Automatic annotation (TrEMBL):
Its main location: endoplasmic reticulum. PANTHER family: CYTOCHROME B5. It is a single-pass membrane protein. Keywords: Electron transport, Endoplasmic reticulum, Heme, Iron, Membrane, Metal-binding, Microsome, Transmembrane, Transmembrane helix, Transport. Residues 3-79 form the Cytochrome b5 heme-binding domain. The chain crosses the membrane at residues 105-122. Belongs to the cytochrome b5 family. SUPFAM superfamilies: Cytochrome b5-like heme/steroid binding domain. InterPro entries: Cyt_B5-like_heme/steroid-bd, Cyt_B5-like_heme/steroid_sf, Cyt_B5_heme-BS, Cytochrome_b5. This is Cytochrome b5 heme-binding domain-containing protein.
Length: 124
């Protein structure tokens, strides 16, 4: 592993099928060689390429085997903000992303559970 530190500009320069970098948990990985082997298909990787893919990686719940593959693809540590600067006058999000947005899927699940409970109680 080299002592090179990577930035968002480095990530942005490598977001194609020919050279694909992504940031996961503060480290930059070159996943180019893994495109054809990824069980979810190369589209998933290409969509997350060139940016912070930590949330997408963790949301999928990768196996220990998948996590064990990461060191082989490690390029080095990341330094700097994880968001690309927006045009002048536009607001930028902090690197923390959206507050509470990680639980958006719970609302439809809660509605479904409430409906099922209602149906069960009415049928009883």
């Amino acid at each position: 592993m080299s002592a090179t530190t990577y930035t968002i500009d480095d990530l942005q320069a490598h977001k194609s099928r020919e050279s694909l970098y992504m940031l996961i948990s503060g480290k930059v990985y070159d996943v180019t060689q893994f495109l054809d082997e990824h069980p979810g298909g190369d589209e998933v990787l290409l969509e997350e390429g060139g940016r912070d893919a930590t949330e997408a990686f963790e949301d999928v719940g990768h196996s220990d085997e998948a996590r064990d593959m990461l060191p082989k693809m490690l390029l080095g540590p990341f330094d700097g903000p994880t968001k690309v600067a927006k045009a002048a006058g536009a607001t930028t999000a902090s690197s923390g992303g959206s507050t509470g947005g990680d639980y958006k899927f719970l609302l439809p699940v809660a509605v479904l559970v409430a409906w099922l409970a209602y149906r069960f109680l009415v049928a009883a």
